[in-house]
Structure prediction request, 113 residues.
Amino acid sequence: MYRNTHQFALNEAKIAYKALMKEQILALPIFEKVEAVFINYPKTKRIPDTNNVCSIHEKFFADALVEFGKLVDDHPRYWGRTIYNFGEVDKENPRVTILLREAKDIVRVIPSI
Prediction:
């Protein structure tokens, strides 16, 4: 669905997302490199594909972190591992929760050939 959405609709959604998240993002520290866990809590038992839901949040959230000065860029040099999880059905408060941590101590190991 995301890939078939018109670019103007996506831009409007991204602007609305940033406005909703601004206060919370501004309260965050500045990260050198971040890792994130996105946890999906859907409203119904008809569970959507967690990857589809969380990937949109990741894209909009990463862009907002950069725009609000909390991360230099969303390039892999600054954005480390991302994990998508399913939480549980929450009819009263459906949401995606985002957990962040500094990932500067994570070293990428390149296997020898």
In short: The mean pLDDT is 86.
